[in-house]
Design goal:
Number of strands: 11
Strand content: 15-25%
Helix content: 40-55%
Low-confidence stretches: none
Strand order of the largest sheet: 1-2-9-6-5-3-4
Largest sheet: 7 strands, mixed
Shape: globular
Bound molecules: glycine
Radius of gyration: 20 Å
Length: 373
């Protein structure tokens, strides 16, 4: 497979730094070696994965790389957000050092959001930047975190505070990985999938409503992954550094992050928090007269059908407590006192950036977080 052939896949992130092809098809993992060989000059690779994914998929990822002539080292981190720390980062640098990775070699991030963020950041900083291929294994990583080059680790002061934009040289997304995902993991990813329908594509939202009544099958997932990858690739190609358009992807995340922070990371999943945050954002939009009435109920019904919370109250009283959520929003270190660029819907399928102070959002929170009538 030549570099041109890989770049010729129909979905790609195109930035000033180059083209990142997204190979999203059943059997894509088998092409990993050829894709890697076309992407880098070196022939050493370090595959980073976690303790959940390693027993299921590590060998299947290593084989095509070896078959393509790579010397492959592997590094397995403990599964979970707690690996996304400065110590976790140092452990990856040590692994790259042991593997003798030069600047023309390759890091492969095989896993969900934690592995992708951590290995991506380690690749961004190793020898001031070495190529990384993202191989997502969770639905959330398929549709969101593996695409777009955001990498980061958490610090005691907050999540994702230290990081870099580092576009992968390719994303290899094989939907067959979804077969081994537990149902709660699928549900988590569906919160981000619903997000794309809400902010960018009303037809896709309607398609998801159809899927929710019959239960998603493998061909539905294939379509979901491709369509979400297309949308994300398009947004990142137009606004890599989140100057404006890319902020739309934060729909549901302002309140969602505050819920995660209030309850404690790991107590509520990111997907559950984003689902509740999405309903809150749409209710705020309805109260402001920006979003047509009835939108929140329609979105809540879809989230419920995918086994996600249909609002903050469905998570619990703490998630629906306006004072706690407002305090968590204010303590988000990334806001640094500025207006919050809140994402509202003009309608399902079209989003807009709406600058608001945390105090203004606080006024709407009681109704936005309350249980549905
Ligand atoms: N997950 C949001 C973004 O990549 O911008």
């Amino acid at each position: 497979m030549t570099r041109e052939e890989v770049s010729g896949t129909d979905i790609a992130v195109r930035t000033a730094g180059g083209v990142c092809p997204i190979v999203a098809e059943s059997g894509a993992l088998g092409k990993l070696g050829a894709i890697a060989a076309a992407a880098v000059r070196g022939r050493s690779a370090c595959v980073v994965t976690d303790s959940n994914v390693a027993p299921l998929h590590l060998e299947a990822a290593v084989k095509p790389l070896r078959d393509a002539g790579f010397a492959v080292a592997t590094h397995v981190i403990p599964a979970g957000e707690r690996s996304k720390t400065p110590e976790g980062l140092v452990s990856l640098w040590d692994a790259f050092s042991r593997a003798g990775l030069t600047r023309s070699d390759l890091v492969v991030a095989l896993g969900g959001g934690v592995v992708g963020d951590l290995a991506g950041f380690a690749a961004a900083t190793w020898l001031r930047g070495v190529a990384v291929i993202q191989v997502p294994t969770s639905l959330l990583a398929f549709v969101d975190s593996s695409i777009g080059g955001k990498t980061a680790i958490d610090l005691p002061a907050g999540k994702n505070l230290a990081g870099a934009f580092h576009q992968p040289v390719a994303v290899v997304a094989d939907p067959r990985f979804l077969r081994t995902l537990p149902a709660p993991e699928i549900a988590q990813g569906m919160a981000e999938v619903v997000k794309y329908g809400c902010i960018l594509d009303a037809d896709f939202f309607s398609f998801l409503e159809g899927v929710s009544t019959r239960g998603p099958g493998e061909s539905d997932f294939a379509r979901i992954i491709r369509r979400c990858a297309e949308m994300k690739a398009d947004i990142v190609s137009r606004d890599e550094r989140e100057g404006s358009l890319r902020k739309l992807l934060n729909f549901g995340h302002t309140v969602g992050h505050a819920i995660e922070k209030t309850l404690g990371y790991g107590v509520v999943s990111h997907g559950e928090a984003v689902a509740a945050g999405s309903v809150a954002a749409v209710r705020i939009g309805e109260a402001l007269g920006v979003t047509p009435k009835g939108s929140a109920n329609r979105i809540a019904a879809l989230l419920r059908a995918f086994s996600l919370p249909d609002g903050a109250a469905a998570i619990g009283p703490e998630a629906a407590d306006p004072d706690s959520i407002a305090a968590a929003m204010l303590s988000d270190k990334k806001k640094f006192g500025a207006d919050i660029h809140f994402i509202l819907l003009r309608r399902i399928g079209e989003a807009t950036i709406f600058p608001m102070t945390a105090a203004k959002i606080r006024e709407f929170l009681p109704a936005a977080l309350a249980a549905a009538d």
